[in-house]
Structure formats: structure tokens, C-alpha cells
UniProtKB/TrEMBL annotation:
InterPro entries: MFS, MFS_dom, MFS_trans_sf, Proton-linked_MCT. Residues 1-406 form the Major facilitator superfamily (MFS) profile domain. This is MFS family permease. The keyword Transmembrane helix applies. SUPFAM superfamilies: MFS general substrate transporter. Keywords: Membrane, Transmembrane, Transmembrane helix. The chain crosses the membrane at residues 45-62, 74-96, 102-124, 136-154, 166-186, 225-244, 250-269, 290-309, 315-338, 350-373, 379-401. It comes from the Bacteria. NCBIfam families: MFS_ArsK. One of its GO terms (molecular function) is transmembrane transporter activity. It holds the Pfam family MFS_1.
Length: 426
């Protein structure tokens, strides 16, 4: 069989489109929101509420987008999605009033279903590489710089351009940079489908059952594991969004003052560091174990902050642990469904994972703000830490389901060997 490893140029190019996609469609918004609110005579809370509503709508579309990826190919949808994202950004830039702006914002978040991580992971898996998990890890490492690059880039552009002009520049990036890359990936996928058709015996020899579409779970265990997986990712999405959207004001509320901004800057490097460490040393680690480690780091980080505030060293440890957990959870969002269920129907499953995470991510900031308005900040943090433990429990249960399925698979095989030996003896 031909070498179907996802080429390095494609990983770097796809990583560049992920940086651009996340930067233009998501990370730029908090920087531009104050100017948008002033122009439309709205409060910033109202503007962020519109974003949350758009994220909720995107979560509803994600499962359908995943099914379309399985049917039409992720690279094809990413190509169309890049053009749609550029159009949505243009509509935002030209919006004459509140209603048209919210409609354009909704379009932005709907198009994100076709160009961000879920689609990129599916494109890698559909390319047929036996090292898909490693390619996904590489991609998340590159894309981890999206916030680091686009927060200052958006601020620098906005210092010289209006928010409408900034969105115009971002539309050009999606059309002129992302769309050609996705088109090249589409051509590569079509060429490989013509030139590389492995024989059945070759398929079963590559990297175990997860590489050929079967996954590691028995059919009876799949539904339970799938529901637990959705619950785990939904809860971790809630924990991450609840604190990330309130990071700087949270540090101030805990009495850290100006040092809180320094603490917040540690999150991004820690997130990238965890992905780098996993890329270098985590190749043999089961993705169920990696998901468990990520959940432990997130819950532990929040607990450390709740227990030590306003001690600066405790806040620093929180930012590092929380960043490490966030970096890993982004990886397992793509690799855990592949390990458990294989390639068949991967896009649809990833769509449901994206929907679960995006839905709770939209609710997290409001829920945490409500908790802080009704209770002490430390109490609110302990509540989030408990939620993190629930997410951890879901991943632990998945591992237990997987281990039980393995034992049940081995037991009847041993029984057949005994029976056959008895028949031969007779």
C-alpha cells in the first residue's frame, strides 16, 4: 500500500487556516465588541449575549455538519465554508443596524462548524493516514497560537482601522488564504482516493482496529461510551468557558490586582506546552487516559485557585494547570472518538462532540456570572471544580467500559479454545 501519512505541508497549511479561522471568527470578537457596542448604542453584555446565542445555534448545526462531512468529505465542506465565512465577515462589516449585525454574527458562528477543529480533524482522518492521532496532535499544537497571535493583531489593526474595516481584512484572509489551502487539501484527497486503494488485508494490518474503522469498543458498549463521552466533553467545555471568559475580572475579584493580568497570560503558553509534551512523549498513551489526565488538571487547577486565593503563587499554579488541561482536552476532542469508534462515521460523532462542547460553552459564562452574583467568588470556584470532577468521572467510566468490553471479548475466545480442545480429544 502507498504511504498515506498526512504530509507535513498539509498539517502546517491546515494549522495556518485554523489560526486564521479561530482568530477571525472567535478571538477577535472580544477586542472589537466595545466599539461595536458603542456604534449600535448597546451594552457590551448585550453584544456578548448575541455571541452566546450564535454559539448555541452553531451547536445545533454541528451534528448535521458532521454527517455532511462523512457524506461529501470534510475538505470539500471546508472549501465552501471558507467562502461562507468570508461572506459572513463582509456582512458584519456592512451591517447597517442591530438586527443585520446579529444576523451576520449568527452566520459567522454557523460557518465555523465547517472550518474549525471538527472539520479539520475529519479531513485528517478521511485522508486515511495510519497516524491520524499524531497528525491531530500536531495540528492542535500549531493552532494553539491563535489567541496569542490574533488578540494583539486585532488590537493593532483596530488602532488604525474601524471595527468594520478590520472585519473586511479578516474576510480577505479567509477568502485569500484559507480557501486556497482547503481547495488544495480537497485536490489531494481526490488524488489519493484514485491512486491509493488498499487491499483488505492491508487495511487490517495498519495500526489496529482504530485505523480501519472498527474502533476499540464492542457494539454493545458503544452507546454507553458515546453518551459518557458527550457528557465528559460538555462538562469540560462548561468549565473552560466559565473561567476563560471571566479570567481577568476573576483575578481582580480575588484581590490579585494588576498581577491578575500577568497570571492570565500564563494560560496560553501552558496550553501550547501540554500539546508539545504530548506530541513528544504521549504517542503510546491511550486517549482515554489522556482525557482523564486533562480532566484532572482542569479540576485541580480550579480547586487550587479556590483554596489559595488571593495568594499569587496559587493563582500562577492555577493558570499553568488550567492551561495544561485545556491543551490536552482540545487534542482528545478529536482523538478519543477515533480511538473508541474508529473512522466509520467519524465526522458525525465529531459533530455531536462539537455540539455538546459548544452548547455548554455558550452557557458557562452566564452561569458562572450568576453564581458570582449570588455567592462568594471562592464558592463559585468550588462549584466549577465539582463540575470538573463530574467530567472526570465520565472519562473514568469510559475507560471502565472499554476494559470491561476487552474482558468480555477475551472470555468467549478462551471458551471456544477449550471447547475445540475437548472435541479434538474425543
Amino acid at each position: 500500500m502507498r504511504d498515506r501519512a498526512f504530509p507535513a505541508w498539509a498539517i502546517w497549511a491546515l494549522g495556518l487556516t485554523q489560526i486564521t479561522g479561530y482568530g477571525t471568527l472567535y478571538y477577535s470578537f472580544p477586542v472589537l465588541a466595545p466599539a461595536i457596542a458603542r456604534e449600535f448604542a448597546l451594552s457590551e453584555q448585550w453584544i456578548f449575549a448575541a455571541l452566546s446565542a450564535s454559539l448555541l445555534a452553531g451547536s445545533l448545526l454541528a451534528p448535521t455538519a458532521g454527517r455532511w462531512m462523512d457524506r461529501f468529505g470534510a475538505a470539500w465542506l471546508m472549501t465552501i465554508g471558507s467562502a461562507a465565512a468570508a461572506l459572513a465577515l463582509v456582512l458584519c462589516a456592512l451591517a447597517p443596524g442591530r438586527a443585520t449585525f446579529v444576523t451576520a454574527l449568527l452566520a459567522m458562528e454557523l460557518t465555523s462548524c465547517f472550518v474549525l477543529y471538527g472539520a479539520a480533524f475529519a479531513a485528517i482522518v478521511q485522508a486515511g493516514s495510519p497516524q491520524a492521532q499524531r497528525s491531530i496532535t500536531h495540528l492542535t499544537l500549531i493552532a494553539g497560537f491563535a489567541s496569542t497571535l490574533f488578540w494583539p493583531l486585532t488590537s493593532a489593526l483596530h488602532a488604525h482601522l474601524s471595527w468594520r474595516e478590520v472585519y473586511g481584512v479578516f474576510a480577505a484572509l479567509n477568502l485569500g488564504l484559507c480557501m486556497p489551502v482547503h481547495w488544495a487539501l480537497l485536490r489531494m484527497a481526490r488524488r489519493r482516493s484514485r491512486l491509493a486503494v488498499p487491499a483488505p488485508e492491508e487495511v487490517h494490518s495498519v495500526a489496529g482496529p482504530a485505523a480501519n474503522g472498527g474502533g476499540t469498543l464492542a457494539p454493545r458498549s458503544r452507546r454507553t461510551a458515546f453518551l459518557l463521552m458527550l457528557a465528559g466533553f460538555a462538562i469540560e467545555g462548561f468549565v473552560l468557558s466559565a473561567l476563560l471568559m471571566h479570567m481577568v475580572p476573576l483575578m481582580t475579584a480575588l484581590g490579585l490586582g494588576a498581577a491578575g493580568l500577568f497570571v492570565s497570560t500564563l494560560f496560553g503558553p501552558a496550553q501550547v506546552a501540554s500539546r508539545l509534551v504530548n506530541m513528544l512523549f504521549g504517542g503510546r498513551l491511550a486517549q482515554t487516559h489522556l482525557a482523564t489526565i486533562a480532566a484532572v488538571l482542569l479540576a485541580l487547577g480550579v480547586a487550587v485557585l479556590a483554596a489559595t486565593a488571593p495568594w499569587l503563587a496559587g493563582a500562577v499554579l492555577f493558570a499553568v494547570l488550567f492551561g495544561l488541561g485545556s491543551g490536552l482536552i482540545s487534542i482528545v476532542g478529536g482523538t478519543l472518538p477515533l480511538e473508541l469508534f474508529g473512522r466509520d462515521g467519524y465526522g458525525a460523532r465529531l459533530g455531536w462532540v462539537s455540539a455538546a462542547r459548544q452548547f455548554t460553552s455558550a452557557l458557562g459564562p452566564f452561569a458562572f456570572a450568576f453564581l458570582m452574583s449570588r455567592t462568594a467568588v471562592e464558592t463559585s470556584l468550588w462549584s466549577v471544580a465539582v463540575a470538573g470532577l463530574l467530567g472526570l468521572s465520565a472519562f473514568v467510566l469510559i475507560d471502565m467500559v472499554k476494559q470491561r468490553a476487552r474482558r468480555e471479548h477475551r472470555h468467549p475466545a478462551q471458551g471456544n479454545v477449550i471447547a475445540e480442545s475437548g472435541a479434538d480429544a474425543g
